[in-house]
Every structure is written in C-alpha cells, then in structure tokens.
Amino acid sequence: MFQGLAEKLQETFKKLRGKGKLTEADLNTALREVRFALLEADVSLPVVKEFIKRVRERSLGVEVLESLTPAQQVIKIVNDELTALMGDTNTSVNFSSSGPTVFMLVGLQGGGKTTTAGKLALYYKKQGKQPLLVGADVYRPAAIKQLELLAKQISVSFFSLGEGSSPVAIARDAVEYSLKNGNDLVIIDTAGRLHIDTELMEELQEMKSAVSPHELFLVVDAMTGQDAVNIAQSFHEELGLTGLILTKLDGDTRGGAAISVRQVTGCPIKFAGTGEKLDALDPFHPDRMAARILGMGDVLSLIEKAQASFDLEKAKELEQKLRKQEFTLEDFLEQIKQVRSMGPLDQVLGMIPGLGGAKQLRKLQDEVDEKEFVYMEAIINSMTPQERCDPSIIGGSRKKRIAKGSGTRVQDVNRLLKNFEQSRKLFKQLSEISTGKNTRKFKSIKFPFM
After folding, report:
1. Residue 305: predicted pLDDT
2. What is the CATH number of the domain that holds 52?
3. Which residues contact residue 376 at a Cβ distance below 8 angstroms, ignoring those fewer than 6 apart?
4. What is the number of other CB atoms lying within 10 angstroms of the CB of residue 97?
C-alpha cells in the first residue's frame, strides 16, 4: 500500500540527507517534489496545500536549518504532519457498557461492506466477543446469502428476515434477537447504491433511529480515489458517521484517499482492509502508517502480528530444541506455517525497519517468492517421519521419491535441504550470541532466503 508515494518521498529525502546544511532553496525543491508526490498519490489539492504550508513553516525555523542534521529534522516534521493528517493516533471503538454493542455499516454498492462485516465479526470473535451478523441488504441479489455463508465460515451467529422484509424491521428485530441469544456485538450490513440518492439516505436514517448504533462505519474502497472523499463527506453530513473503514488498501499503489478523507471529513479512520482473506483487517494507526510510508518500518504492528500468530508454548519448546541442537524438519515446517499465518509476506517485510527504501524492499519482496513456502511444505509433507528427524539419510533415490510425491523437482528438494541447514546454523549462531559464547556481530550472519 502507498507504494508509489513511499518511493517518491523516500527518494526525495535521500537527496536531502546528502546535504550537510540546508538552504531555503534546498527546502523549496524538496517540498515541491513532496507536493507532486502527494498529488500523484491522489491526495486532494486543498489537503496538499495545507500540508505543504505547515511543513514549510515548521522547517524554516532556525533550529532546523542550522541544526547538525537538518535533513533528519525535516523528515521528522513531515512524519509528524503526515501522522496528524491521518488522525494523530488510533481512535478506539465505542462499546456499550450494558447490552449489545451495535455496529452499522453503510456505503456505496461494491465498496466491500458485506466482506468487511465478516472481517469485523472474525476480528472481535478472536477477542472473545459473540458477534451476530445481520443481513439487512434486501436489494442486492444474494447479499443476504453471501453474509450467511460468511457467518458459517467463521462460525458466528447470523440473523435476517429475508429479502422481502423491511431493512428497518430486520435491524430492530436483530437487536432483540441478540438480547435473547447472548450476542454482545451486532454487526448490520446495509444496502448500498451505485450512487448516493435521497431514498438510500432516508432508509439509513430510519435504521439509525431504530437501533441507535454505537458505531456507524462508512466502508469505502480506497481505490475510488478522490471520489472516496466526496462519498465520505456526503454520508457524514446525512448520517453523522463515527468512523471510516478503508478497504483494498493492499491493491492501491496511490492510497491518497486514506490521507485525504480524514482531513476533509474530520471523521477518524478506524480500520483498514489489507487483503481478501477474512483475517485481513487491521486497526488503523496513523503514526505507524506514516512511518511505513517514509520507510521507517512498523515494529509495533509486526510484534502484534507475531504475538497473535505464534504459540507461546511451542516457542518455548523450540528454544529448548535449539539449545540442545535438536532442530528438525518438523520444527522447520512449524516455523514456516507460523510465519505464513502472520499474513502476506510482502506486508510482513514492509514492517521491518532497516531493509532499505521502497525500491530495495520491493526488490527483496520479488526475490522472496511466497510460493516457495508452499513448495517447502509440500516437500516436507512428502517425507517419512524418519527423514524429517534425520535429513542426512536422504540420498538420491529418496530425493526422487520426495520430489515425485510433492509435485516438485529434485533441485527443489536440494534447495530446501540447503535452506534447512543454513537455518539450523543460523539458530545455533543466535543461540551462541544470546549466551555470550560468540561475540561476532549480528550483521555477519547470513540469513536463508535473503
């Protein structure tokens, strides 16, 4: 996400870092490039003008131009202003202190409301909630059936009165149903249109009055560009939104809507959809997003994903095996599965600081093909238990059998075994460093796959 913007901004600041002292002319040249980068990323013109004005005013101060590291000072200012533009900090979601919490999702047709409803249900189910998905889109063919299938897929409750019913009645009855059945979170999927019209708004206003939602989310497709800002403005004026959910951020290299929409509407972005899978929904953290755009990584999100994906008991067990030099292909396979469960590899790599700029990161992402993990799992699954525990017994004939069983080539089997050996040596070195037995610098270690 924001790939084009990130590349241009990082390239601009790379030029600044090469200067020992900054002049006003240097600053104007850099800000002109930042302005073009933001406009090309589809950030609205009024937002860009205000942003550049604020950065220029702060950057022209004596403490910046005469500091020892003026470029870093300017980058910090841009980071601060970019964060402020998207909302300063993550805004918490409102929950009811008594009775069920009601989320109402609105937006245009095709914005991703139904899928987002399923993502929200899964997200809060993992946090111990008992969600109820409510199909109130009685106009789009199969919309209710689609939501019902999503509810079954993630094993949460579902409610609807059918396509011939009133959306207002569906919403009202759903809240009563949740009270009787112990659901503490009601997520209502409403109808959309291809454009904003009076009839749609009146119906949504009636639904809002009927259920008094604690959160009224506008689900908007980030790929709609500047239209996203206009759509958000209209819905906010008519309904009084409490938050925005941006979808398809993974597919938009510009992403200007995410930067513009918060500033124009004053309505916080609370979630971002980052993929097609139902677990690809993350709370929106403006400070972390700004850091990623400027190539600073996102360590906090990386840690949160790791904590959610990695089993603590298995991690402790693995640590003991590493210390005793008992790391096997079974353990290697387990680690591959846990890394893959953190999400798409390109997103995970993007959170790691120090991998270089956007261009270098993209090159690394191209080199590390996620399909390799699929092949590795297939190869290891085609081995016997004895082979997984002791790869040294895998000779030529065994390699041919494993390759045939996994639908790969002998070369692929050889590459896996080589990567496994490199990983085992790496873990041994890390263990020695952690115990003080080896004082070599960490950067001297060669990582497999990179």
Report:
1. 57
2. 1.20.120.140
3. 333, 336, 416, 419
4. 6
Strands 131-135 and 101-106: unpaired
In a domain, 338, yes or no: yes
pLDDT of residue 114: 95
In whole angstroms, how far apart are CA 416 and each of 105, 345, 371, 393, 439? 46, 18, 13, 15, 29
CB 235 within 8 A of CB 123: no
Min mean pLDDT across 51-65, 198-212, 248-262, 385-399 is at 248-262
Q: Are the C-beta atoms of 295 and 10 separated by less than 8 Å?
A: yes
Pairing status of strand 185-189 against strand 131-135:
parallel
Q: What are phi and psi of 141, to 5 degrees?
A: -55, 130
Q: Which of 165, 244, 232, 243 has its CA nearest to residue 203? A: 165
Q: Domain for residue 96, yes or no?
A: no
Query: Tens digits of per-residue pLDDT, 185-229?
Result: 999 999 988 788 888 899 999 999 999 999 999 998 877 777 788
> What CATH number is associated with residue 168?
3.40.50.300
Segments forming the whole domain that contains residue 81: 3-85
Q: What is the pLDDT of residue 71?
A: 74
Task: Please indicate, yes or no, whether residues 201 and 306 belong to a single structural domain of this protein.
Answer: no
- Helices and strands, counts by H and E, the chain: 21, 8
Query: Do the domain assignments include residue 168?
Result: yes
CATH of the domain at 388: 1.10.260.30
Q: Which residue, 33, 53, 85, sits at the end of a domain?
A: 85
What single DSSP character describes residue 141? T
In this structure, are 286 and 179 located in the same domain?
yes
Contact present, 124 and 209 (Cβ < 8 Å): no
Q: What would the DSSP string read from start to end of 428-444?
A: HHHHHHHTTS----GGG
* More confident call, 299 vs 116: 116
CA distances 295 to 36, 177, 356, 363, 447, Å, are 18, 48, 7, 14, 22
| Top mean-pLDDT range of 114-123, 227-236, 300-309, 414-423 | 114-123
Q: Could you tell me if 256 and 309 lie in one domain?
A: no
Q: What is the pLDDT of residue 102?
A: 97
Q: How many CB atoms lie within 10 A of CB 152?
A: 11
